[in-house]
């Protein structure tokens, strides 16, 4: 191969490289990706999910309303995680924790034969529905110094189900809170009492025929 042919080959290679470089520059200018205003990744969220609103609405429901719609069956299933420390049957033995038969409305720290912590003894009062709800939400937060190591149940509905199950552990279950028993169906407002006539108001005279 003489020098003339070699120059042609090198010229062809150089020309190809220049054309490729020019195409890359042109493509980059046309198809350049748009840079976000802030670095990071966009997270797609489905419209209409309303997860935060649903949680707020659930948390806003008072305990009597949640107890009225609670499922004792679901509560029994959730309470299975407590069987390592508690028994639930009538006359059952105490374990790490006391027997829970008849716990609703039972005086606190009163189960015979169980050695309660000083903090539980000092708390006093009965295990009302409200007290059980607060204690199950955070045992150590509500009774500081209790020996119970359970972390608690964060979900309001789950606590209501467990309390509904505990209510069944009695020969005569304690009545539900009045607000739950008397709440009108569908949340409809109760009928307003009929207004009494104002004192001193004279009856309207009827014209004579």
The radius of gyration over CA amounts to: 37 Å
Question: In which range does the helix fraction lie?
Answer: 40-55%
Largest sheet, in brief, is:
none
Global shape: rod-shaped
Contiguous low-pLDDT stretches (5 residues minimum) are 180-197
Structural class: mainly alpha
The termini sit apart by 137 Å
**Number of helices in the DSSP assignment:** 9
Q: Report the β-strand fraction as a percent range.
A: under 5%
SSE pattern, N- to C-terminal: HHHHHHHHH
Mean pLDDT: 79
Number of strands: 0
Report on this model:
The chain has 209 residues and is an all-alpha fold. It has nine helices and no strands. Helix 4 (72-78) packs across helix 8 (156-167) and helix 6 (129-137) packs across helix 8 (156-167). The longest helix is centred in the N-terminal third of the chain and has 28 residues, at 3-30. The radius of gyration is 37 Å and the shape is rod-shaped.
List keywords for this structure.
9 helices; 209 residues; 0% strand; mainly alpha
List the SSEs and their pairings.
Layout: H1 3-30, H2 51-60, H3 63-68, H4 72-78, H5 118-123, H6 129-137, H7 139-142, H8 156-167, H9 178-182
Helix pairs in contact: 4-8, 6-8
Short description:
With about 210 residues, this protein is an all-alpha fold.
């Amino acid at each position: 191969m003489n020098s003339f042919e070699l120059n042609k080959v090198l010229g062809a290679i150089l020309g190809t490289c220049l054309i490729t470089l020019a195409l890359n520059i042109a493509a980059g200018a046309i198809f350049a990706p748009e840079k976000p205003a802030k670095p990071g990744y966009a997270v797609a969220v489905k419209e209409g999910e309303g997860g935060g609103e649903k949680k707020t609405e659930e948390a806003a429901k008072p305990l009597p309303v949640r107890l009225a719609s609670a499922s004792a069956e679901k509560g029994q299933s959730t309470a299975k995680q407590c069987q390592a420390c508690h028994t639930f049957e009538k006359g059952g033995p105490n374990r790490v924790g006391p027997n829970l038969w008849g716990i609703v409305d039972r005086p606190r720290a009163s189960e015979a034969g169980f050695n309660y912590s000083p903090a539980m003894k000092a708390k006093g009062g009965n295990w009302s529905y409200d007290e059980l709800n607060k204690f199950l939400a955070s045992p150590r937060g509500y009774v500081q110094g209790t020996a119970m190591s359970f972390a608690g149940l964060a979900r309001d509905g789950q606590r209501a189900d467990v309390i509904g199950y505990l209510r069944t552990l009695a020969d005569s279950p304690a009545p539900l809170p009045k607000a739950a028993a008397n709440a009108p169906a569908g949340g409809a407002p109760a009928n307003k009492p009929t207004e009494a006539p104002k004192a001193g108001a004279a009856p309207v005279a009827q014209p004579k025929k």
